[in-house]
Amino acid sequence: MSAEKLERQTRSYLSDNVPQIQEHGGHFEIEDVDEATGEVTVAIGGACSGCGIAPMTMKAIKQRLAEELDEVSEVTVRRAGGPRAAVMPSKTDEMEDMDEYEDYSPPF
């Protein structure tokens, strides 16, 4: 499969299955795809940057994208940089390690 097709499938999956990102003022970017290994890197930003459930959203994307798309072997999800960078990176870093997020399964 070509990198372009893998990127399209990833973008389509996220748009269709994680609409909350865009509905709540966030965005996602497909930063990298490696068609040879099936590795995909996704960044989320905008309103997601300071959102309290962003770590759960990131965890769900990482797990479910690899489960749903056979061509994807590994997913890296991170916060977007640049002008769309996290507005509260220290808080969201702390949230990623909170026990409350360990077993949470978002409804998407």
Structure write-up:
The protein is of the alpha+beta class. It has a single domain, classed as 2-Layer Sandwich (GMP Synthetase, Chain A, domain 3). Helices cover 39% and strands 21% of the residues. It contains four helices and three strands, in the order H-H-E-E-H-E-H. The protein has a three-stranded mixed β-sheet. The protein is globular.
**Largest sheet at a glance?**
3 strands, mixed
Write down the overall geometry.
Answer: globular
Report strand %: 15-25%
Looking at CATH, which topology would you report?
GMP Synthetase, Chain A, domain 3
SS field, number of helical segments:
4
Main β-sheet, spatial strand arrangement? 1-2-3
Say how many strands there are: 3
Helix content: 25-40%
What's the helix-strand series?
HHEEHEH
SS-based structural class? alpha+beta
What is the CATH class name?
Alpha Beta
CATH architecture: 2-Layer Sandwich
Radius of gyration: 13 Å
How many domain modules? 1
Pfam families: NifU (PF01106)
InterPro entries: FSCA_dom_sf (IPR034904), NIF_FeS_clus_asmbl_NifU_C (IPR001075)
Protein name: NifU family protein
